[in-house]
Amino acid sequence: LIGIDISDSEIINLLTSIGCEYNNKNNTIKNPSYRFDLNIHADYIEEIARVYGYDNIPIVPEKISIQPSKKYQTFEIINEIKQYLYKNSYSECINYSFVNDSTLENYNWKNQEFFDHYKISNYMSVEQNKLRSNLTSSLIKNIQYNNNVNSENSYRFFEVSNVFGDNIDQVLTCVAFGDRYEENWSLKNRKFDKYDMTTIVEDIAKIFGLQKDELDYVIKDTSGNKMKFIELTLSISHLLSKVTKIPKEKFVSYSKFPYIRRDLSFLIDVTITYGSILKLIEKINVLSLKKILLFDLYVGKNIPADKKSLGMGFIFQDEAKTLTHDQADAYVREILEELRSAFKIELRK
Question: Which residue from 130, 244, 273, 314 could staple onto 117, CB 3.0 to 4.6 Å apart?
């Protein structure tokens, strides 16, 4: 217990030095009457360590090889998925696993008819008399409740939990309703559709180094109470069997050196998207380019009908040294040459 080996003879000497009596015949120690604090083995061990001298006991750090358990790996994988959904404006819901006999419940997570539910013999309410076979109906009720209390243009909810069909499976279900984008003057809004859910599947597969076809999922349209929803259900159990490596986040410290910003305003064909401009600049691979901002978009008076005016800001910053203005100007010229070559832009004066 104290981390060192002490010989039997030395232990006897230590204990007898504090008044204990050693019986050589039956190899026992008897404490003196005034040492009523010596009752159990731990008391004697503590006394041996005290008399031996705490300073004489070397401090040796324990060497233990710890491997994360499979249960912890499961937590990490689910947490990665949740963090991705949070960043995409999805709110997590936690619902009871007990449901009722609503017809909305009579299918499993794969959208197949299912009536052989796990029944609860001592249920407290007829509204909670069986275990749910899907998560969709619970999330739809969450959206309907929130819409009745505080009507919004869109809702994005998700839940990770077990479902009880022919087998017990852990699944992720996302349900979206309403407008895809928040109100924005530069975007033409639309409703959520299957392509939005397909993007989620592709992104989750990419996080874990997989292909979309390797995942087990279902995307479908669902209706309820005159509302239309789009739903994605993905098998976490199947995903866990495929994942061999969990991505690790790496900390990158902030640069200690100042940044330089350069703003450009130019005319470009109206058919060219901002995304294609970003992809081109990304291919140039300017190492010191840290951020790109779109601060202006104008179409109208004094601009040709087939053109639009873009105002873009470029922020340059080096990790190891202070950038000079000449270096920043050289980076801007490099970007301009590529934009002129690919999109025939015209700088505004």
Answer: 130
